[in-house]
Amino acid sequence: MPYDYQYLIQTGNTVSLAGTIAMSIPDGGKHARSAQIRLPRFVSEPVVTATVHSKQGSGTIFALFNIDYQDVESFSLVTFVALNIQFGDESDLEFLCNFVVVGELPEEA
Predict the structure, then answer these.
(1) pLDDT band of 108, cuts 50, 70, 90
(2) Which residues of 49-61 are buried (b: 16+ CB within 10 A; e: fewer)?
(3) Residue 19 pairs with which residues in a beta bridge?
(4) The CATH number of the domain covering residues in 7-104
C-alpha cells in the first residue's frame, strides 16, 4: 500500500514522516481547501504539524482549521482542512500542504 510521505527519519520505532500534498477545493466552495494522507498505523496518536501555501502568488491567506487523525484498518488517515482568513473571499489558486508527523510505529514481529 503506498503512503503519502516523501521523507522518513527513523530511530528505533520512532519515525518522523514529512511531505507535501496538493489540497483540493471541497464542495463547500473556493474559500476552503482539504487534503488527506495515508500513513502507516501508529501505536498511539502521533504529533502532526502542517502549513498551507501557494506557489502561484500571494494575497490570499489560508490557515489550517482542522487536523483530524484516524486509524482505519491497517493504516492511519490524516485529514487537513484550511480556510481563507479573509472572510467571504474565494480563491482559484492551487494550495499545497506541507506536513510533519512524528510517532511510534509498532514493533515488527
Answers:
(1) confident
(2) ebebbbeeeeebe
(3) 99
(4) 2.60.40
